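Running co-folding for adenosine-5'-diphosphate.
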Amino acid sequence: MSKVSPSDGDPGDDNPAIDIEGLSNGFDGHLVHENLSLTVRRGEILGVVGGSGTGKSVLMRSIIGLQTPSAGTIRVLGRAVAEPDPDNPDSDIRSRWGVLFQGGALFSTLTVGENVVVPIKEFYPEIAPELQREIAGFKVMLSGLPPEAAVKFPSELSGGMRKRAALARALALDPELLFLDEPTAGLDPIGAAAFDSLIKELHETLGLTVFLITHDLDTLHEICDRVAVLADRKVIAVGTIPELMASDHPWIQEYFNGPRGRAAQNSRPAVDTPAPPVETVAKTANPKPVDKPTQPDA
Ligand SMILES: Nc1ncnc2c1ncn2[C@@H]1O[C@H](COP(=O)(O)OP(=O)(O)O)[C@@H](O)[C@H]1O
Ligand SMILES: [Mg+2]
């Protein structure tokens, strides 16, 4: 297995959306990340996979400044998240991304529309309340919810609709970057596929860069341009799924070439567009099939 070298070789890496180098994170002496590096290209949908507890959510929290790393640098949209923009010190980089946290995390005592208004109010208090509500209503529709969903409380919605409501809130500020932490977890396959289509459509129409944590193999096959694999406290590989499948790392083999991985692959129509250039993955001529009928990270 080769080492990840995120900055090598691809023009998309010259001005990345996210650039992480030498990141370390730990809790009470337990290291979650150690010298982790990762580059997310502008405009891509990057899937992030890894077993439960490998630090996917901690990685996302580090990028958006909710977790202070013990070492390393993180640059988002060209600047360090903790530092003010020298050209525009009043601008807040947090207004340039939207986040859908694991589990959705909507305010249960606010309606969907009020939930979407929260970030608008926080970052643009000068906008008149009526206009704030109008913007929120638009985001609700953009997320594929009927307009009447805006006046409902999260508890009145199905799981799939709650995810869409959380997505509407993540889109509230017209973000350039969208972070999604296991957005299809808990949805039935039809709901999950519909959510995937929505993400793909929004990615295309809004020109978003998407950082998508998921263990949903269908999602990975369906909408991700590349996939980053977290294991052994770092990103051990980044590439398209065919590139990853050529890796000999046991977790990658088990995940993508195991029964569920193969099923997900076969349920998709063949894609005949050429794969973008590889950046990191060691190529082994003949990946060994793995028979174990288990799937990491349920
Ligand atoms: N705030 C925290 N305090 C202590 N330990 C934490 C905290 N957040 C995460 N961890 C630990 O860090 C590891 C990675 O967590 P997480 O990023 O949530 O994993 P996952 O890959 O499943 O998203 C786990 O061992 C988890 O228990
Ligand atoms: Mg998580």
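Result summary
The pocket of adenosine-5'-diphosphate (ligand 1) is lined by residues 27, 32, 50, 52-58 (CB under 6 Å).
Residues 189-206 form the longest helix (18 residues).
Job closed.
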